[in-house]
Write a structure and sequence with these properties.
The chain is of the alpha/beta class. It contains 19 helices and 27 strands. The chain folds into 4 domains: about 190 residues, inorganic pyrophosphatase (n-terminal core) (Alpha-Beta Complex), CATH 3.90.1640; about 100 residues, CBS-domain (Roll), CATH 3.10.580; about 110 residues, 3-Layer(aba) Sandwich (Udp-n-acetylmuramoylalanyl-d-glutamate--2,6- Diaminopimelate Ligase, Chain: A, domain 1); about 120 residues, Diaminopimelate Epimerase, Chain A, domain 1.
Length: about 550
């Protein structure tokens, strides 16, 4: 088996994640997919669409309709072990010699070598382990006890196997130097011994007669044919080496396989998906300098060291359809934000350095992305057109929302032609799919399209459910109203508002909970509170962003 080694730094390509807000809606998801595709086309750098929450029924319908895979789920963007530079220094066989292991470490300038056989970590050795093995070399049977491959011995002695199979191993015997006369060998040589015999033919023949397992001849002096024939007949190996007897004796123990001394139990390893801030205390508490890294299938990936903490690369993000910290993926403040593409009010996201920020008062983030495709002259495919159209129809409620603009309508007309769908018919199908919530729990319905906002010292949550008729909304109302208080407590919010929006009737019923929620609704919309004390009708209110939130913020700030 040829031993393979890999040396150097393992620095995989770091993608840019294009990600929407928590509890992602159709605009958030489709904007991430379409903008990631545009950025990759323009830059050639890997841009990966991501989400930080589960997809709702409407978005599932849209992705299935146009044959597009969902974005990957990322719940936390703090730096992970996989974001560190790793030393990719390993050997793929535990049979390699200590000498070979030492050469690998010397060349790579490391003091630890991992052994990864068939991709799995078998163990590791350090330069200290090798030094200790040399210093404790008193056992003359150590090679046979370790089942040392003859291949190792030949390589270590810079030699050549003249007689015997190089793939054999030394199974029995000790290492002995035949320094005396042939007659004296009878007192020392035993069957299976490795005998360093120099170039004396009589001594070589005597060692073979005594059933030696292998002879090492020195100075590359040719071996007599008689010796070769007797060795072949008795099964004795012969190795020719250019070195003298002293050097051979000094080098021989370096042929030991690393498995004989490597550590294979209780190894301190880290998974590539572990967060750096969580493993740092462990590393600081250990004396080791290098630590193996495994992937989720326990495959060996490389090694990290304390020094690698200094150059940790933050994850790179592009935020779409939001710019508030409360709506962003967990760990966002520890990532590097490159761009923000949004159509909402300015929020609380802050960055360490300037970023590309595009915010337009349009009905959908996907309308902005449609504009960017056209500005850059990038052709819009049928599937991309379908996703952009779906997001625009969803966020503008088929252009019935007051957030809808002429630009949104222009985008919708063009995209529906590219996607090959009737926009109004498709929108009705999409909304029906989104309002089919029979199998959802009340908690799942509330948080399906849910956003948090900070207003002064209060934190509120606003959810919205869209449906095509009031019968669907009545069933949803009866299901969610009893659990609103519980959900507010579990989220640690001051108030929760849930809009049940009738798309065709162009109005909403608001359900609410929390101290002061009822006066907020009364004052913001001159609304009559129903007898249950937790709901009220809001004719003409269909937009959370443009109609509901601004009115609530104004009242609460006042």
């Amino acid at each position: 088996m040829d031993t393979k080694t890999k040396k150097g730094l393992n620095t995989p390509e770091r993608p840019v994640f294009v990600i929407g807000h928590k509890n992602p809606d159709t605009d958030s998801v489709c904007a991430a997919i379409c903008y990631a595709a545009l950025k990759q086309e323009l830059t050639g750098k890997a841009h990966v669409a991501a989400r930080c929450g589960h997809l709702n029924e409407e978005t599932h319908y849209v992705l299935d309709k146009f044959g597009v895979q969902p974005p990957i789920l990322i719940k936390d963007v703090r730096a992970q072990v996989r974001d560190m530079e790793m030393r990719s220094v390993f050997a793929d066989s535990s049979d390699i010699s200590l000498k070979k292991a030492g050469e690998i470490m010397h060349d790579a300038e490391v003091i630890t070598l991992c052994i990864a056989e068939k991709g799995k970590l078998s163990g590791l050795i350090t330069s200290d382990d090798i030094v200790k093995a040399y210093m404790d070399a008193y056992d003359d049977k150590v090679l046979s006890r370790a089942k040392t491959p003859y291949k190792n011995i030949v390589e270590t002695l810079d030699g050549e196997m003249i007689v015997g199979d190089i793939s054999d191993t030394m199974e029995t015997g000790k290492v002995i130097i035949a320094a005396g006369t042939p007659d004296t060998l009878e007192h020392f040589v035993e069957p299976g011994d490795f005998v360093i015999v120099g170039n004396l033919t009589d001594a070589q023949l005597k060692a073979i007669e005594l059933k030696a397992g292998c002879l090492a001849t020195c100075f590359n002096i040719s071996v007599d044919q008689e010796v070769i024939e007797k060795a072949e007949a008795s099964g004795c190996h012969i190795i020719s080496t250019p070195h003298n007897m002293f050097t051979v004796a000094r080098l021989i123990n370096q042929s030991l396989p690393v498995r004989s001394i490597m550590k294979s139990k209780d190894l301190i390893t880290f998974r590539s998906d572990e967060y750096i801030e969580e493993i740092e205390p462990v590393i600081k508490s250990q004396r080791h300098r290098y630590f193996p890294v495994l992937d989720k299938r326990n495959n060996f990936m490389g090694m990290i060291s304390r020094r690698n903490f200094l150059g940790v690369k933050k994850k790179q993000l592009i935020l779409v359809d939001h710019n508030e910290k409360s709506q962003a993926v967990q760990g966002m403040e520890d990532a590097e934000i490159l761009e923000i593409i949004d159509h909402h009010r300015l929020g609380t996201v802050t960055t360490l350095s300037p970023v590309f920020f595009r915010n337009q008062p349009l009905g959908s983030t996907s309308t902005i992305i449609w504009q960017m495709y056209k500005e850059k002259g990038v052709e819009i495919s049928k599937s991309i057109a379908g996703l952009l159209l779906s997001a625009i129809l969803s966020d503008t409620l088929m252009f019935k929302s007051p957030t809808s603009t002429e630009i949104d309508r222009m985008a919708g007309d063009e995209l529906s032609k590219i996607a090959g769908v009737d926009a109004e018919k498709f929108a009705r199908e999409m909304f029906r799919a989104g309002s089919n919530l029979e199998k959802k729990t009340a908690e799942e319905i509330i948080t399906q399209d849910f956003k948090r906002f900070s207003i002064g010292d209060k934190s509120i949550g606003i959810g919205q459910i869209n449906a095509m008729d009031r019968e669907e909304l009545r069933a949803i109302r009866e299901k969610v109203l009893p659990v609103l208080d519980k959900k507010r407590d579990s989220y640690g919010l001051s108030m929760i508002f849930l809009l049940l929006t009738d798309i065709i009737g162009e109005g909403s019923e608001v359900l609410f909970t929390g101290d002061g929620a009822a006066p907020v609704i009364e004052n913001a919309f001159s609304c009559h509170i129903n007898d249950d004390g937790q709901s009220g009708m809001l004719p003409g209110i269909v937009s959370r962003k443009k109609q509901f939130l601004p009115a609530v913020v104004e009242v609460m700030q006042a």
